[in-house]
Specification:
With 483 residues, this protein is of the alpha/beta class. The protein is built from 18 helices and 19 strands. Helix 8 links the parallel strand 9 and strand 10.
C-alpha cells in the first residue's frame, strides 16, 4: 500500500482518502496515481493511501485476473470480445463478488477498517463492486467514487451503491441517465491522468515529424511489424520506439533498425512517456484508455494498431469520431497509412487540433471536487430497480418509458436535495405504508423492530440513514430523460 503522509498539521483533521485500484494492465493504477497526485493541490485532504487490491489477494487469484486476461486477449481475442459484450448490460451480474472473490477481499476490508477513510476512489470495477456491498452492510460510510478508465461505459462498472460515478465522456453520462441514474450522481470528467508541470518543449518547424511507437508497458510483439512497415515509408520522419519491459523485443528492434542510422531511437521501459508524447507529432500503438487520454491531453493524434477487442476497440471508435486518430486494420498497410497522414496538407495539424479538443487534463482534480463537494449520503439502487434497469437495457428502451409496478422512482433527500435511492414503484408503496408523512412525503426512520422490515428495505435504510435516526425524503418519478 502506497502512503502519502499528511501535508502539515493544519490538515490533520481533513479528509482521509483511500484510492483502490487493480493491477490488470497499467491503466487502472496510472489513474489511481493521477488522483493521488491531484490530492496535493487540496488543503482539505489530510492523508492519502493507494492500494492495488490484487497485490493483497492470493497469488492464484492475482495470476488469473492480472495475467489470464492478457493471455486470452492474445490467444483467444474472440472470447474476450464475447465476454465484454456479455457483461455490458448493467446489473446482468450482481458484481463479481462470488465466494472466491469475497475471500480474497478480506485484506482489502481489513485495510479499510484500519485506515478509516472518509472518502474512497475506485479506479477498477472490482473494488467498486466490493464497496457497494460494504456501504449496504454498514461496514463503511466513506463517500465512494467510481472512476471509469475507458471512453466507453461498460455495465460492470455500475454498482448497487456509491456516492459519485465519473465517466470519460458525455455519451457515457447520457447512457447512465437513460438507465435512470440521477443527474447529481453522474459526471463526465474524462479519465484521470498525471499532470505535467514542465512546459512542452518547442520543436523546430524544420525538423521532420516524429513518430512515437509504443509496444505498451509489457512490450507487445506487434511493434516489430509496425517498425518494419515504417521503414518503407516515403515521407521524412524520425521515430522513438518504446518497448516496455520486454528486453528481447527491444534487442530485436534495435537489430532491425540498425541499418537506418539515427532515424530510430529504441527504448525499453521509461517513465518519460509524458515528455515523449509532448515532443512527438504522431503516436502509433494501442488505444488503451490511459494512453489515449494522455495522448489527447498532449494534443497527440494516434495511429491505432492491434486494439484488444472490447474496450480498446470502442476507445478507438471514439477517437475516430473525434477526428483524432486513424486505424490500421492490417499490419501490411501501417507505413502507407502514416504516409497518407503526413502527405496530405494540413491533415496532421487538423488531427492535432482534434486531439487537443478531446483532451481532459484536469480530470483527476475534477473527480476529487465532484466527490468531496458532492452528496454525503450514498445512492442506493435496490435489487428490484437493478432488475428493471437490466430489463430496460435488454429491451433497448430508456427507463423513463417504463410504467407500472416495475417502473423506477427516485427518493430525494429533502435536506441535501440529492437523490439517495432508485427503487421500483412497488417498493415505494411498501415504504409509504410505513413512513408516510403528513406533508405527502416520507420520513425514513431507523426501525425499533428492524426484523419486521424486508431484508432489502433494511439494507436501504442502513446505507441511507448512516448514523441518523430519521431522514425526510420525497419521491419523484423519472419523467423524460434529461437532455
Amino acid at each position: 500500500m502506497a502512503r502519502t503522509p499528511a501535508r502539515d498539521t493544519d490538515t490533520a483533521g481533513g479528509e482521509r482518502l483511500l484510492i483502490l485500484s487493480a493491477g490488470v494492465g497499467s491503466g487502472h493504477n496510472s489513474a489511481a496515481a493521477a488522483v493521488q497526485q491531484a490530492c496535493g493541490a487540496r488543503s482539505d485532504i489530510a492523508e492519502v493511501q493507494v492500494l492495488d487490491v490484487l497485490k493483497v489477494s492470493s497469488v492464484l487469484y492475482r495470476a488469473l485476473l492480472a495475467k489470464g486476461y492478457f493471455v486470452l486477449a492474445k490467444d483467444l481475442p474472440w472470447l474476450v470480445d464475447w465476454a465484454y459484450d456479455a457483461s455490458d448490460p448493467p446489473f446482468r451480474r450482481r458484481g463479481p463478488i462470488d465466494p472466491w472473490t469475497r475471500a480474497n477481499a478480506v485484506p482489502v476490508i481489513d485495510a479499510i477498517r484500519q485506515f478509516r477513510p472518509t472518502a474512497i476512489v475506485c479506479t477498477h470495477f472490482l473494488p467498486a463492486q466490493l464497496l457497494a456491498s460494504l456501504l449496504l452492510r454498514g461496514v463503511t460510510d466513506a463517500r465512494t467514487a467510481v472512476v471509469t478508465t475507458d471512453y466507453d461505459f461498460q455495465g460492470l462498472w455500475l454498482p448497487g451503491a456509491f456516492h459519485a460515478l465519473f465517466v470519460a465522456r458525455e455519451e457515457g453520462r447520457m447512457e447512465l441517465l437513460a438507465h435512470g441514474l440521477p443527474l447529481d450522481r453522474v459526471a463526465a470528467t474524462g479519465i484521470p491522468i498525471a499532470q505535467q508541470f514542465n512546459p512542452a518543449p518547442l520543436r523546430d518547424a524544420g525538423e521532420p515529424p516524429m513518430l512515437l511507437i509504443s509496444a505498451g508497458a509489457t512490450g507487445g510483439d506487434y511493434a516489430v511489424s509496425v517498425v518494419r512497415q515504417t521503414m518503407h515509408m516515403q515521407s521524412p520522419f524520425t521515430a522513438t520506439v518504446v518497448c516496455g519491459r520486454n528486453d528481447a523485443l527491444r534487442q530485436r528492434i534495435e537489430r532491425l533498425v540498425a541499418p537506418a542510422g539515427d532515424r530510430y531511437r529504441v527504448l525499453g521501459f521509461t517513465s518519460e512517456m509524458p515528455q515523449l508524447m509532448r515532443r512527438a507529432d504522431l503516436f502509433v500503438g494501442k488505444p488503451g484508455g490511459l494512453s489515449a487520454s494522455e495522448c489527447m491531453a498532449a494534443g497527440l493524434p494516434m495511429v491505432l494498431v492491434n486494439p484488444i477487442p472490447g474496450q480498446e476497440v470502442r476507445n478507438g471508435d471514439y477517437l475516430l469520431e473525434q477526428g483524432a486518430a486513424v486505424r490500421c486494420n492490417s499490419s501490411s498497410t501501417i507505413g502507407w497509412k502514416i504516409d497518407e497522414v503526413l502527405r496530405e496538407p494540413g491533415r496532421l495539424e487538423r488531427m492535432q487540433a482534434a486531439a487537443r479538443g478531446t483532451g481532459r487534463p484536469d480530470a483527476a482534480s475534477d473527480v476529487l471536487t465532484g466527490l468531496l463537494d458532492g452528496p454525503t449520503r450514498p445512492l442506493v439502487v435496490t435489487r428490484a430497480a437493478q432488475r428493471t434497469i437490466l430489463a430496460a437495457s435488454e429491451q433497448r428502451v430508456v427507463a423513463a418509458d417504463l410504467t407500472g409496478p416495475s417502473s423506477l422512482v427516485r427518493l430525494i433527500d429533502s435536506i441535501e436535495d440529492s437523490t439517495v435511492a432508485l427503487l421500483q414503484a412497488e417498493e415505494l408503496g411498501d415504504l409509504q405504508k410505513r413512513y408516510a408523512a403528513s406533508n405527502g412525503g416520507l420520513v425514513l426512520r431507523r426501525g425499533r423492530a428492524p426484523v419486521s422490515l424486508h431484508w432489502e428495505a433494511r439494507r436501504l435504510l442502513r446505507a441511507i440513514l448512516r448514523g441518523d435516526e430519521a431522514l425526510p425524503v420525497r419521491a419523484e418519478g423519472l419523467g423524460a430523460p434529461p437532455a
